[in-house]
Amino acid sequence: MGRSSREIRNILVLMVVAMTAGSFAAAGNAAPAMKALVGGTLVDGTGAAPVKDAVVVIREGRIACAGRRAACPVPKGAEVLDVRGSWVTPGLIDAHVHFGQTGWADGRPDSLDLRDRYPYEQVQAGLREHPERFFRSYLCSGVTAVFDVGGYPWSWSLRARTAGDTDAPHVAAAGPLLSTRDHWLNVPAERQFIYLTDEKIAREGVRYLAANGTDAVKVWFIMVKERPFEEMAAAVRAAGDEARTLGLRLIVHATGLKEAKEALRAGAKILVHSVDDLPVDDEFISMAKANGTIYCPTLTVVGGYLRMFDAAATHKPPVVDDPNGCVDPVTLAHVAETASLTLDTAVIQQKLERTRARFAAGNPVMADNLKRVLAAGIPIAMGTDAGNPLTLHGPSVYAEMEAMQADGMTPMQVLVASTRTGALALGSAGKDLGTVEAGKVADVLVVGADPTANIAAMRKVRIVIRGGAVHGVAELAPVR
To answer: pLDDT (tens digit, 9 = 90+) per residue, 161-188?
Structure first.
């Protein structure tokens, strides 16, 4: 086959690890035995230079030591995993997801209304009862922690459900969103949007979130032509003030420069979308730095809508970017169904043209603003907005990271944004995550190419370690 003996040995080692990984999972979620990853190149997520021929020692689900062999000798009795020829990184963190959305139109009937065949209340009931379909797709894709930044109240329960589960990512959750738009996308007895009619409602909404132990307060700052801007801005500022009083972080969806600056005045700690209408200015930069705001550019989500509308218009199935076969069969079947939908042609064409125009106009501005934010030293976290149509839970991180690299970040900067800064975005939920350092939770990946040369290397996930439990990727992929 033209492979060297070293390449063959590495492939065999990885095959053996993949086959034996099931034995670790079979033992349940008890603290796994001590083990050591030996011989790989360590990229620890801090931004430090890679360490060749490294050792990572894992004991009781945490990293006991990580570094050069001289500094981290393999303990006697440790199970050794030979990962020579591979790279060892922290698990990826997606700082912008929504478990209340499916990755297709059934979870967003405001995009394509398919409620006649997929009743929205039934879709939501299914998501609430079976989030594991996405837990596995995340872990299989190398994502070991996520932040659900807006959804139904049941999303809070995912935190406890995943806390000790080494077959699922860590989950932080913001719960229902405070919204400047009275959006109809709710179910009869439960809301995912709390309408910000005025400052009083804003404060009451924040207190409700705080009473439920939320990880953050999320505001959906959507421009509504029928409402005076100052009225909406005042409600957002009131929410920010109440959040600050109660010790909660403010997260804001704001894609326009005007809204984003108001969000920063309100004290936003995370902006979960790029500013896509105008260049960010000195005032924006100054406020973001003063707040310690994390910028989560979320570059690729509009492209998912574009692909879905194009598939519906052309009756050609959209391509699913899932290099490790991690997406669940239900999602795959629904995505394929896009090509056979019989919908109003004029409506689909209008949606396609509008989205194409937004995509073309917004992308260059987002790319330029990412460069400006990066140059200013504002921390950047990776987030996909997974759950939106064709932004699939799990593998969508690859396209997002690659877009960040294409828009001016180095591969190392993207990796740090997708690990250490992602952990910062999670707040207290991420304090022990995001880097491969002594004392941190052992959420570790073994990948088959150098992510510091090209972030696309993260597609080549071979081993996923979550809380010290070792999984081969093939073990995590769903049965077809």
So the answer is: 999 899 999 999 999 999 999 999 999 9
Residue at 332 is within a domain: no
- Tally of CA atoms within 13 A in the half-sphere of 455 that contains its CB: 26
pLDDT value at position 1?
34
187 lies in the same domain as 248: yes
In a domain, 211, yes or no: yes
25 domain residue, yes or no = yes
Task: List, run by run, the mean pLDDT of 10-residue segments along the chain (480 residues).
Answer: 39 36 39 85 98 97 96 94 97 98 97 96 96 96 98 97 95 98 94 96 98 98 96 98 98 98 98 97 98 98 96 95 97 96 91 93 96 98 98 98 98 98 96 97 98 98 97 87
DSSP alpha helices (H): ranges in 164-281?
A: 199-211, 229-245, 257-265
Q: How far apart are CA 220 and CA 235, in angstroms?
A: 12
Query: How far apart are the C-alpha atoms of 134 and 392, rounded to whole Å?
Result: 9
Shared domain check, 185 and 254:
yes
Please count the other Cβ atoms lying within 10 Å of the Cβ belonging to residue 212: 12
Contact between 444 and 433 under an 8 Å Cβ cutoff? The reply is: no
In a domain, 356, yes or no: yes
Q: In what order do the strands lie in the sheet with 170-173?
A: 92-97, 143-148, 170-173
Burial of 92 (0-12, 13-18, 19+ CB in 10 A): buried
Quick one: 144 and 217 in the same domain?
Answer: yes
Q: How many residues does the chain have?
A: 480
**What CA–CA distance (Å, rounded) separates 159 from 217?**
16
Determine contact, residues 43/87, Cβ cutoff 8 Å.
yes
Q: Which amino acid is at 398?
A: Y
Whether 234 and 204 map to the same domain: the answer is yes
C-alpha closest to that of 147 among 173, 127, 176, 167:
173
- The letter for the amino acid at 53 is D
Q: Cβ neighbours of residue 347 under 8 Å, at least 6 residues apart?
A: none
What is the number of domains present in the chain? Answer: 2
- Are residues 103 and 209 located together in one domain of the fold? yes
Per the CB < 8 A criterion, the answer to whether 447 and 460 are in contact is yes
**Contact of 154 with 128, CB cutoff 8 Å:** yes
pLDDT for 5 = 40
Range of the structural domain that residue 148 is part of: 92-303+344-430
Q: CATH number of the domain at 458, please.
A: 2.30.40.10
Closest CA to 390 of 309, 289, 464: 309
pLDDT of residue 283: 98
Q: Which of 372, 395, 391 is nearest to 276 (CA)?
A: 372
Residues 114 and 211 in one domain: yes
Kindly report the CATH number assigned to the domain that includes residue 282: 3.20.20.140
**Alpha-carbon dihedral sign for residues 327, 113, 148, 229:** positive
Amino acid at the residue 38: V
